[in-house]
Amino acid sequence: MACQFVSNQRAQGEPLDEFIQDCVDLVEFANGDTTTYWGKIRAEMGHPAPFKMKYLGIGNEQWGRGYVENLSRFLTVMRNKCPDIQIVGGSGPGPNGEKFDYLWPEMKRLKVDLVDEHYYQSPEWFFSNARRYDTYDRKGPKVFAGEYASHDRVNGNKPNSFLAALSEAAFMTGLERNADIVHLTAYAPLFAHVNAVQWNPDLIWFDNLRVMKTPSYYVQQLYSLYKGTHVLSLLDADKQPIAGSDSLYASAVVDRERNNVIIKVVNANQDERLVDIQLKGLSGDAKRIVNVQLLSAALSTVNTLEQPENIKPQSDTFSLSGTSLALNLKGQSFQVITVPL
């Protein structure tokens, strides 16, 4: 479906059945055995192995009763014919408001598996919403943060500034802390050619010869490379999540496959901060700590095709003995600290 802002056409009644059947056929093409009609076609196209498709989104920034009625018909058929596919419903074009408030209860009523949330908002919004999912209902659908980006508006433009990236890193500590409810996320958009721009900001810019990774790209990369396997509790002295107090944001995970603890910290203040993290349950043996940092003295700094490495991750190591980790957090920085178990 097109975004409802782009197209307000709606299939109703019998014509909708064709679109529902398209979804059933798509799942068979992606996952069906080669003895099935569409699975055989997939194999003939050169991919005999199933794609192991798991999710199907119905709608893209739709809203209103008509969308809910159509989605209900999709669900009835898909639950019967494709019971292993998780269905993603929508919550409208924004993170709040009348459309959002109407759709979330409807998604719960329909019992979709995930709800797609979109937010293209200011850096201030991202900083202030680091606790957005702390109080979400754990008994309802899970969340797919399907489109998001921090829009740092400067003189009518929306540059991929370090401020935008830092606010996204801060917000993502809340996504990671609430991984039990936020199951999927996706920055948007991914690519843009400098001479054919439909939307900005974008994660990766390119021309015919060069590629430039934005500060936001490196934030996404660091969360991807250091995602861990299980969420750990990381609280301040008042037993609260670290989500904006003193301009600090943090989350922690354990990677049981690589046998380490990973701590992500954002210092949104321009001044350095000394923090002490108590690593309860960790042995006091000497350890080599890896610290990866993304930082800039100027929040307005951007990468360009001519200067693509104005901002990029920097790594260093230091030793730790005991279970008290003292960190000197540089101003305006995002840091990823890896501690061996």
Automatic annotation (TrEMBL):
Keywords: Glycoprotein, Hydrolase, Signal. Residues 146-333 form the Alpha-L-arabinofuranosidase C-terminal domain. InterPro entries: Alpha-L-AF_C (IPR010720), ASD1_cat (IPR055235), GH (IPR017853), Glyco_hydro_b (IPR013780), Glycosyl_Hydrolase_51 (IPR051563). It comes from the Bacteria. It holds the Pfam family Alpha-L-AF_C. One of its GO terms (biological process) is L-arabinose metabolic process. The keyword Phosphoprotein does not apply. GO terms for molecular function: alpha-L-arabinofuranosidase activity. It catalyses: Hydrolysis of terminal non-reducing alpha-L-arabinofuranoside residues in alpha-L-arabinosides. Gene3D superfamilies: Glycosidases, Golgi alpha-mannosidase II. Its EC number is 3.2.1.55. Belongs to the glycosyl hydrolase 51 family. PANTHER family: ALPHA-L-ARABINOFURANOSIDASE 1. This is non-reducing end alpha-L-arabinofuranosidase. It comes from Bacteroides reticulotermitis JCM 10512.
